[in-house]
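Lecture 7 notes: from sequence to structure.
We start with the chain below.
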Amino acid sequence: MDNVNKTLYIPLYGKALVSKKGIILSDKKAEQIWSEEGFPLKGKSRSKWLAYFLAMRASVFDGWLKREMSKEASAIVLHIGCGMDSRIERVGANGHMWYDIDFEDVISLRKKHFSSCQYYKMIIGDVRNPRWLNEIPNQCNAIIVFEGISMYLKTDELQAFMCSASQHFQKVSLLMDCYTGRGANATRYKNPINDVGVTVTYAIDDPKILEKGTNFSYICEHNITPQEMINELHGTERFIFKKLFGGRFAKSIYRMYEFQKN
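Predicted structure tokens for the same chain:
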């Protein structure tokens, strides 16, 4: 497994940790997978603060996805760069066709813990070469979760994928988290992903740049660390977390953007 793929263990650990604590996110599957597949993380990648942040990020994605699924009863769901995330179990397909997409070695590992069924399929695929879209029905509506992967793609690679998606589907709703330029620069020195060997990341400072040539429109920014989730922390943890991840500094390095193609 290459270094980028190894980053999947960082959010897996975070979700397992908070689930055991009974805060922010309930994810028994993450607990189970971590106990069986736990990767030897070190340094910042095992930080409880990072675990809280990644669990909040996942919960925000979950909530957005549930709302979009309720609005678009016939839309298919694409979770791109799914890693070992058990979002399919947290959210549920609820009659939607759901596709989890990732690299071959990730999907191979994933199949040890998840099984395909009528409404759920796992597909081997690379965002930079979206031929795998041919395995998915076209001319329908799609809801795309793009969590934790934009920072490993150049702007033109993101634009190329969004262009392919806009051509394949009639309507698309997409939620994406990304680094700012300041955040990408910081990864060279003090980012948890350095602990698994990743040192090069990319940034999106202006979400409207992804509108160019894609038929997507930027809709709005989402709060990755809502106050109601921060309130699930206790005492000094709540205060410290808000300073580290819930304030202006955090926003200067990390953002979450929603796009739509009609």
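Points to note: The CA atoms of residues 49 and 241 lie 6 Å apart. The two ends are 37 Å apart (CA to CA).
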